[in-house]
């Protein structure tokens, strides 16, 4: 990686009213970051009682084409999007990797910093839950974290096979308070806004010269324009 990115500050587990605070992670390419990323997670945080959500921009995503914007540009857009949102912070350890950003490796890295007893959650969308069985070492995910699932328009709540549905039902909880009482192992399906926004749509609009003001923060639109991103 050629960009000189800021160093990682190691995490320390914290408590609130004698209960461990859940450390929540949300990864993505963020090419670019948009309201479909931010707003559902903000609602999720209210439902679950999250104090902070750590955004993890990917460097080499294993399940999708490579980003059009550079790592530095995507990191800068994430910083701009959350500059007035104290819920969010950024960790760029995945941007340092030259190899694919496998979630299980990232979770183990955080586990080493936080210890075995700190509640750790990984936020995904309903679309990712449907294909989670294709992830690298997916069966180890719940050994390291809880899964917090945001709703996505057009996706079923049930999984594609009886075996995966059984896995979901074995781990699913309806009471988010349980998440802070155990370090990992639960799945919580959140009732978050169904925002039909995608980075693909934003990039297409940019190619066509159309406004994206309803899809992403104005600071991101200004940055995209200033950098000449997504024009081809």
Automatic annotation (TrEMBL):
InterPro entries in the cross-refs: Cyt_trans-like (IPR004821), NadD/NMNAT (IPR005248), Rossmann-like_a/b/a_fold (IPR014729)
E.C. numbers: 2.7.7.18
Record organism: Xenorhabdus szentirmaii DSM 16338
Domain Cytidyltransferase-like, first and last residues per copy: 25-204
Keyword Ion transport: no
Function of the protein: Catalyzes the reversible adenylation of nicotinate mononucleotide (NaMN) to nicotinic acid adenine dinucleotide (NaAD).
UniProt family annotation: Belongs to the NadD family.
Pathway(s) the chain acts in: Cofactor biosynthesis; NAD(+) biosynthesis; deamido-NAD(+) from nicotinate D-ribonucleotide: step 1/1
PANTHER family: NICOTINATE-NUCLEOTIDE ADENYLYLTRANSFERASE-RELATED (PTHR39321), PHOSPHOPANTETHEINE ADENYLYLTRANSFERASE (PTHR39321:SF3)
Presence of the UniProt keyword ATP-binding in the record: yes
Gene: nadD
Catalytic reaction(s) noted: nicotinate beta-D-ribonucleotide + ATP + H(+) = deamido-NAD(+) + diphosphate
GO MF entry, a single one: ATP binding
Protein name in UniProt: Probable nicotinate-nucleotide adenylyltransferase
UniProt keyword list: ATP-binding, NAD, Nucleotide-binding, Nucleotidyltransferase, Pyridine nucleotide biosynthesis, Transferase
GO BP term, pick one: NAD+ biosynthetic process
The organism's place on the tree of life at top rank: Bacteria
Pfam families hit by this protein: CTP_transf_like
């Amino acid at each position: 990686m050629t960009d000189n990115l800021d160093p990682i500050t190691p995490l320390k587990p914290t408590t609130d009213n004698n209960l461990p605070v859940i450390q929540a992670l949300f990864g993505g390419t963020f090419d670019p970051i948009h309201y479909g990323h931010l707003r559902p997670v903000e609602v999720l945080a209210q439902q679950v009682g999250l104090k902070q959500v750590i955004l993890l921009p990917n460097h080499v995503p294993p399940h999708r084409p490579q980003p059009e914007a550079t790592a530095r540009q995507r990191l800068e857009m994430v910083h701009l999007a959350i500059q007035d949102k104290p819920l969010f912070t950024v960790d760029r350890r995945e941007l340092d990797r030259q190899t694919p950003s496998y979630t299980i490796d990232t979770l183990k890295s955080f586990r080493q910093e936080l210890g075995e007893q700190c509640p750790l959650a990984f936020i995904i969308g309903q679309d990712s839950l449907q294909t989670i069985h294709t992830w690298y070492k997916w069966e180890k995910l719940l050994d390291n974290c809880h899964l917090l699932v945001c709703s996505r328009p057009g996706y079923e709540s049930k999984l594609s096979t009886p075996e995966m549905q059984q896995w979901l039902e074995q781990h699913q909880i309806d009471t988010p308070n349980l998440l802070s009482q155990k370090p990992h192992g639960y799945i919580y399906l959140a009732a978050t806004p169904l925002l039909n926004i995608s980075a693909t749509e934003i990039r297409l609009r940019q190619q066509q010269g159309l406004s994206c003001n309803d899809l992403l923060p104005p600071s991101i639109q200004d940055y995209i324009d200033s950098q000449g991103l997504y024009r081809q």
